[in-house]
Amino acid sequence: MDSMIHDMADRLFRDHVTHRLREDAASGQFPEALWMRIEEAGLAMALVPEAAGGFGVLPGEALGLVRLAGAHGLPLPLAETLIANAVLAGANLALPGGRLTIAEGEALRLERRGEKIHASGHLTLVPFARWANRIVTNAVLDGADHVLSLPVKELALDPAQDLAGMPRDDAEVDLALTEADVGVVSRPVEGMRALGALIRSLAIAGAMETILEMSVQYANDRVQFGRPIGKFQAIQHYLATMAGETAASRTAAEMAAVSYDTPAFALTVAAAKARAGEAAEKVGALAHQIHGAIGYTQEHSLHHFTKRIWGWRDEFGTELDWTGELGRAALSSPHDTFWHFITDSAVQGAPA
Predict the structure, then answer these.
(1) Handedness of CA 61, 46, 35, 203 (dihedral sign)
(2) Where's the Acyl-CoA dehydrogenase/oxidase C-terminal domain (predicted)?
(3) Which of 54, 77, 98, 122 has a C-alpha 20 to 30 A away from that of 47?
């Protein structure tokens, strides 16, 4: 199943995600036709259990779609919709269909007003908010975690964008929620920051694979002083560094994806996002060193990927935030040594 879904998605993205489409999306044009194809393929339902109407694909396989989307520079909220559908299904809320996105809801306040729950507060830099039908987030009321499905048409949006020109809008929330909009979960859900960090880690890994591929190709094609620049030791060192950073980031991101919804997730996603952030800085900078001035031009595709990884690096927690989480977890661990902390099967969520 995973190979079929990945092959289908890869063909779809290769056929339709072009340099022109990324340019148009960055200028504010929503790629409606491509989104309809993605919906028809059911890609956003891959992480939803079959009982809830999804494909029931294993997390590591379903979330591989996010890495593919990153590798193609997809300018659509597939990753956000994929994870939002899974969160709604986990809270036994109806899946509304259409385009969804996620946001950190720590700044939201919930209060009971009669038979309804009123939500108020501010959501900051919500990915693709103006292109989404609903924003999925979570907040606490009476000590219990609640998943919220907020209709975008009832929110006040303040448009903004990230480095790549993708929508990152602020949203002012002040509305009464119906039973279809809010659900109480029986156990604490992973915070939206962690879920967002997961999809950003995977997307960064995918985008860096494309950046590396473009850099290798350019180094082989560009001739200077009578030979390809890829023959020069300095360029070879750059490419080797990029390859190592990309491989390490992909491994960490895939480990986090496999551990989704297990006790290990909190640690693996922290490691993945921290690793992705560190790699994004190095890989992006070295790619532009190799390409020189042409990599900065609007006509070249490189900037669509480097701008994305640099923007994603800062979303849903920076490497400073996530290494802090790892440090606090290590210091509070009952294990005698750091080695046992990182290898214990219970911590990693592996079967005993």
Answers:
(1) negative
(2) 202-308
(3) 122
Tens digits of per-residue pLDDT, 88-130?
Answer: 999 999 999 999 999 999 899 999 988 889 999 999 999 999 9
* CA atoms of 136 and 160, how far apart (whole Å): 19
Q: List CB contacts of 340: < 8 A, sequence separation 6 or more.
A: none
Residues 239, 231: Cα–Cα separation, whole Å: 11
The answer to whether 138 and 145 are in contact (CB under 8 A) is: yes
- Mean pLDDT of the region 160-183: 95
User: What is the CATH number assigned to the segment(s) 2-184?
Assistant: 2.40.110.10
Which sequence spans correspond to the domains of the chain?
Answer: 2-184, 192-348
Task: Measure Cα distances from 81 to 57, 113, 310, 333 in Å.
Answer: 15, 30, 22, 35
pLDDT at position 341 is: 81
The strands making up 134-141's β-sheet, listed across from edge to edge, are: 100-102, 134-141, 144-151, 182-184
pTM reported for the whole predicted model: 0.95
CATH topology of domain 192-348: Butyryl-CoA Dehydrogenase, subunit A; domain 3 (1.20.140)
The yes-or-no verdict on residue 1 having pLDDT over 50 is no
Mark out the alpha helices in the chain (DSSP H runs): 2-16, 19-26, 32-41, 59-62, 64-72, 78-90, 192-221, 233-258, 265-291, 302-314, 319-331, 338-343, 345-348
Distance between CA atoms of residues 154 and 316, nearest Å: 24
> Can you tell me the distance from the alpha carbon of 101 to that of 77, in angstroms, rounded to the nearest whole number?
7
